[in-house]
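Q: Got a minute? One more chain.
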Amino acid sequence: MGTWTKVLPTLFEQLPFTVSLIQYELEHWVTPDGDSIYGRLPESVQGYHFGPELRSYVLHQHHACGVTEQQLLESLWDRGVSISAGELSNLLTLNHDDFHAEKDDLLTTGLFHCPYLQVDDTGARHQGQNGYCTFIGSPEFAWFGSTESKSRENFLSLLHRPWTTLVLNEHAMSYLEDHNCPAKWRKVFQECLCVHFFNRESWDAFLDDCGLTKPRLRQKASEAMLYGSLLSHGVRSDLPIHSDGAGQFDVFIRSGCWLHAGRPIERVIPVNKEQVEEQYQLLCRFWDLYRELKAFKAAPDDKRASSVRQHFRQLVQTRVECSELREALSNLAVKEPELLAVLDDPNLPLHNNLSESQIREHVKRRKISGGTRSEAGRQARDTFASLKKMCRLHEISFWSYLRDRLNGYNVIPRLSEFIKKAVYGDMDEGFTNTF
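A: Always. Here it is, folded:
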């Protein structure tokens, strides 16, 4: 016990936490004309009862360390901070417009500068209802957005979030034709070609005026509008979207995860020795093919790419007695374009581990806290998860980042600049990572 009593004070000295009450006296001047001029509080405390250091601490503990509001409240009380539960909630969720704007910049910059996007989604309850959180990112950035749906229309809406205006153009018409929209409605939309809509509400009103009431057709029309608008804003039509194969991400160029593609073969339960041997041989060939692709990524070569394509087709055309294995091979054959997209672009990943590891942030928070109750709370959760992950990706101290922004130092560049640096390598790193 004597050893611990000597060590503990040293540990607490390294983590100082002092509480001080500051009273500001603002000057009041009266001009000869009778007008009043008042002094102003420092920018870092305007609109708050607490200073930037405590606000940084609260945000870091909750969003970076996963401390729940109740535990954080009790910790602050134990340290002598006089704060109510409502005020703590406000510090965590309100008046973060600058953070929200910086988070939105991440998606815009990633769409225009990253060579591909990785995506995934997971459940995220809000106001007692089931919802979803979608991750959009790459090795250069991370962005989270929570909504009530996980449809393709929802995914396109998330990609379109930086912009409000919508346009019905030739790209939208091509989308409708590719997705078998009835000719009657294509003719209606063709007459309104190049019409711009200021927001989603005006688009929905247009559909109502047209008499398009069937939910499925409205959804397809909205998908086409969002798709065309994205291209009109400069998003590449050949932008690869790497996912686990979920249908809602089937936009632009699809790239598939090999780990997910192999699971249907692994899940088959053989009933005799012959089926056991068939499954074993298929899995060996499947993972041999995966290793061939890894070798191709390390040293791209047309001859090796041709060999991989040949071996893939031989695998999916293998004759087996087990009906479930035949079905798994048939599904694998359908996914050939997305699984072999890496042969056309060796930069694409072979698995979706990045997305799954990033979105685990929301899975852990969902298990601990259940869900969000206010729109401001949901927005704050997505924003600070995105900003924290960005800091982790680029080896920036999230604590330093919060203090930099809340104190108004602005020494750390906008996080979107780090995306460009990672892609192009042209940013000056003349800032300190700690304060």
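A: The two ends are 36 Å apart (CA to CA).
Q: Perfect, thanks.
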